[in-house]
């Protein structure tokens, strides 16, 4: 295996980690306006992800940095062709991060409601647009012979990519609801489980449509296997929402569904990193988009040294904040 192939796998792993972890906190962010009945319940949901959401975003930063260093041509073409959707995602993530920090800075209902809306839309928009972006990456875009994107923003909003965006939105919302069941207790936990059961039906249908479409247009024997694993894990997680208990298994299975869905997309893509819909000869591949072997070699040693430290630290964070919370754990509730 060549270093460029290794780094394609490494970038895929980083995106898998990002969607697994950030997926549930995007879902919880959406649920703050869907599941929570009042401000106290919104605080319960926010507190389930408050200690970890910023750590989850490290995976995105690392994936972006690794792409820039390992595949500079891929990075350049992505950011020139996907400039507007990526800008919207970036702004949404910034506003969302500010909202987490600032919503409690002033004792004003109007102030908190405004920041709560920022959390909702800052979670909703990336949950959709990441699906749109990755569907377009797999489908291919209009790249000319210089590997420049010559299409328009509206070309990115094709039917396949929109189905991809709705799939990630529902998948992350289901993942977030399952996480809420795992991390809360009391009435809000019961309602989260009921909501997960309802959302799960739509998620299964749309995810199946998207995976079948991907398989028909871009698939292979390997992607057929990974897509089936993703579908079975999603169905199993949904089935388990219909009975109480086994919250950890339910969450793990919804995570497995995300993992293998993303694996399906990357396996469908390889050896391309950004196909051209104009001429296959214009496509970016792991070979023509990669950095020099020396650069990839240095990156590999850096990753070997620092990646275990990052994983240990993030694992420790989740362990420390593993306790369930509920309405009665919110100080404002106790004050009443």
Structural account:
This protein is mainly alpha-helical. It has one domain (3-335). It has helices spanning 3-31, 39-49, 53-70, 72-81, 83-102, 109-139, 159-183, 187-218, 221-240, 247-269, 293-320, 331-335; strands spanning 272-274, 284-285. It has 12 helices and 2 strands. The chain starts with a helix and ends with a helix. Helix 1 crosses helix 10, helix 5 packs antiparallel against helix 6 (109-139) and helix 8 (187-218) packs antiparallel against helix 9.
Features:
mainly alpha, transport, membrane, about 325 residues, metal-binding, two-stranded antiparallel sheet, globular, 2 strands, about 75% helix, transmembrane helix
Radius of gyration: 20 Å
Please give the count of helices: 12
Biggest β-sheet: strands ordered side by side in the sheet = 1-2
Largest β-sheet summary: 2 strands, antiparallel
Mean pLDDT: 91
Point out poorly predicted stretches: none
State the domain count. 1
Please give the number of β-strands.
2
- Binned strand content: under 5%
Helix content: over 70%
Q: Which series of helices and strands comes N to C?
A: HHHHHHHHHHEEHH
Distance between the termini: 63 Å
Compile the SSE list and pairings.
Layout: H1 3-31, H2 39-49, H3 53-70, H4 72-81, H5 83-102, H6 109-139, H7 159-183, H8 187-218, H9 221-240, H10 247-269, E1 272-274, E2 284-285, H11 293-320, H12 331-335
Antiparallel strand pairs: 1-2
Helix pairs in contact: 1-2, 1-3, 1-6, 1-7, 1-10, 3-4, 3-11, 5-6, 6-7, 6-10, 7-8, 7-10, 8-9, 8-10, 9-10
Membrane topology: Multi-pass membrane protein
GO molecular function: electron transfer activity; metal ion binding; oxidoreductase activity, acting on diphenols and related substances as donors, oxygen as acceptor
InterPro entries: Cyt-d_oxidase_su2 (IPR003317)
């Amino acid at each position: 295996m060549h270093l460029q192939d290794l780094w394609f796998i490494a970038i895929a792993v980083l995106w898998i980690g990002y969607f697994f972890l950030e997926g549930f906190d995007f879902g919880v962010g959406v649920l703050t306006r869907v599941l929570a009945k009042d401000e106290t319940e919104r605080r319960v949901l926010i507190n389930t992800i408050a200690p970890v959401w910023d750590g989850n975003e490290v995976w995105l930063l690392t994936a972006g940095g690794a792409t820039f260093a390992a595949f500079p041509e891929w990075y350049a073409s992505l950011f020139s062709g996907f400039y507007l959707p990526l800008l919207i995602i970036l702004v949404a993530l910034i506003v969302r991060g500010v909202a987490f920090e600032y919503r409690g800075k002033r004792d004003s209902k109007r102030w908190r409601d405004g920041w709560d809306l920022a959390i909702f839309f800052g979670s909703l928009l990336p949950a959709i647009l990441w699906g749109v972006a990755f569907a377009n990456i797999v489908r291919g875009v209009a790249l000319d012979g210089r590997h420049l994107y010559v299409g328009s923003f509206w070309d990115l909003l094709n039917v396949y990519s929109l189905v991809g965006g709705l799939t990630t939105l529902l998948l992350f919302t289901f993942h977030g609801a399952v996480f809420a069941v795992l991390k809360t207790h009391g009435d809000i936990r019961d309602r989260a489980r009921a909501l997960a059961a309802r959302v799960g039906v739509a998620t299964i249908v749309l995810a199946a449509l998207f995976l079948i479409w991907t398989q028909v247009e871009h698939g292979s024997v390997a992607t057929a296997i990974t897509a089936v694993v993703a579908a079975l894990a999603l169905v199993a997680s949904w089935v388990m929402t219909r009975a109480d208990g086994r919250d950890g298994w339910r969450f793990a299975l919804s995570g497995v569904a995300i993992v293998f869905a993303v694996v399906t997309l990357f396996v469908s893509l390889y050896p391309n990193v950004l196909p051209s819909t104009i001429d296959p000869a214009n496509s970016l591949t792991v070979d023509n988009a990669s950095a020099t072997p020396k650069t990839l070699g240095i990156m590999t040693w850096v990753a070997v040294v620092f990646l275990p430290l990052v994983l240990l630290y993030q694992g420790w964070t989740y362990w420390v904040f593993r306790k369930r919370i509920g309405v009665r754990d919110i100080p404002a509730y106790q004050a009443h």
